[in-house]
C-alpha cells in the first residue's frame, strides 16, 4: 500500500512538472532588446516599393477545441471521479459491515 502511494505521488509530481516546464520556458528571460540609435541607421533617398503596415493588435479568438472540448473533457473527468467515489462507498463500504441479529 505504501509503494502505491509513493508511485502515485511520484506520477502526479512528474505530471505537474511536465506541464509547468513548457510554460516556464516560454516566459521571457528579461533580455532587453538593444536600442537603435539614429547614427546606426543608414539614411538614404530610396523609397520602399510597397509600404507594409504593422499588424494591428487584434484579439485572437481561441480555437473551438479550447472553447468546447477542454471544458467538456474536464466535466467528464469530474463526473467519472465523483461516480467512482460514490460507487466505492455503495459497493465496498456498504457491504463491509453486516448486522448480526
Let me know the largest β-sheet. Answer: none
**Strand residues, percent:** under 5%
Which structural category fits the helices and strands?
Answer: mainly alpha
Shape summary: elongated
Please compute the radius of gyration using only Cα atoms: 29 Å
- Calculate the terminal CA-CA distance, rounded to whole Å: 34 Å
Helical coverage, percent range: 55-70%
Descriptive report:
- The chain has two helices and no strands.
- 0% of the residues are buried.
- It is elongated.
Quick summary:
The chain is mainly α and 101 residues long.
Keywords:
101 residues, elongated, 2 helices, single chain, 0% strand, mainly alpha
Helix/strand layout:
Elements: H1 2-26, H2 64-96
Amino acid at each position: 500500500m505504501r509503494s502505491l502511494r509513493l508511485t502515485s505521488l511520484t506520477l502526479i509530481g512528474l505530471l505537474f512538472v511536465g506541464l509547468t516546464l513548457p510554460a516556464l520556458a516560454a516566459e521571457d528571460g528579461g533580455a532587453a532588446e538593444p536600442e537603435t540609435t539614429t547614427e546606426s541607421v543608414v539614411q538614404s533617398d530610396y523609397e520602399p516599393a510597397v509600404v507594409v503596415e504593422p499588424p494591428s493588435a487584434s484579439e485572437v479568438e481561441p480555437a473551438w477545441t479550447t472553447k468546447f472540448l477542454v471544458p467538456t473533457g474536464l466535466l467528464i473527468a469530474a463526473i467519472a471521479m465523483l461516480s467512482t467515489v460514490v460507487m466505492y462507498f455503495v459497493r465496498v463500504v456498504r457491504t463491509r459491515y453486516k448486522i448480526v441479529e
